[in-house]
Design brief:
The protein folds into 2 domains: 106 residues, Nucleotidyltransferase, domain 5, CATH 3.30.420.40; 153 residues, Nucleotidyltransferase, domain 5. It is built from 11 helices and 12 strands. The radius of gyration is 19 Å and the shape is globular. It has 279 residues and is an alpha/beta fold.
Amino acid sequence: MKLFIDIGGTHLRSELQMPGGVISENVSSQEYDLVSFIEKKLELYPFITFIGISYAGQIYKGEILSAPNIALKEPRIKEYFESRYDLRLEIDNDLNCAAMAESAYFKSDSLLALYVGTGIGSAFIDNGRLVRGSKNMAFEIGHIPYKQTPFVCGCKKTNCLELYASASGLEKRMKHFNMPILSFAELENSQDEQKSALALDFKEALLFATATLITLTNPRIVVFGGGVIEHNPQILEYLKKNLEGQAFSGSLHGVSLHISSLENGAMSGAKLLEENSYE
Ligand SMILES: [Zn+2]
């Protein structure tokens, strides 16, 4: 049996693969702790031999270094489970997982994945390999300095791009302006200038992120995923219309932009960790 998990700031999704089929589950990651969740599964299904986890945080060699949007009990999660149970556990950053899955889907060895959900993240595959950085933290686009805000990011800074271009950032801004919590589409279509301005700020921040990443990485394919983009495909049209003059023209030429076709790219990537784990 194999257990695959995708955990972000909102959901903890799991798929248990067993001979008779697959059991899928979706619970709140704010209510369920990852370690307790896995321990409970192992109690019910002691024959799990592999666990693959896509995690919305910084991961280095089986250890969770930081998790801006998720409560954390046991950072050395690989060692914790492998020393207590007869199984193998692999865990990687959710965007790294998504980029691996997108690269397999597009059969492309030059691909940038940019996902916008609770947070915003990116990962880059160059020549068929993930560009990881020395501690597996490359392309943390959500935490580059963008504009000063009165709020604090999950990483403790107050000027992160994620505070503008993410669902959690939008929520912080709506609360700051004492607005009801609205969806991106409701903000964008609102007649109220203050509300539609938040949607425009979001799109401009995402345009900045996209132009910066295309200029820095020179990919062949850019794939956008995550809840906010998948529910609002009009955002891609905005980006396509406005990238010129923002991204370096040499890098922009020939690049193709897509919305993800995968149901859950991060989860698909978790399933690739058995073969593609980071050593
Ligand atoms: Zn941050």
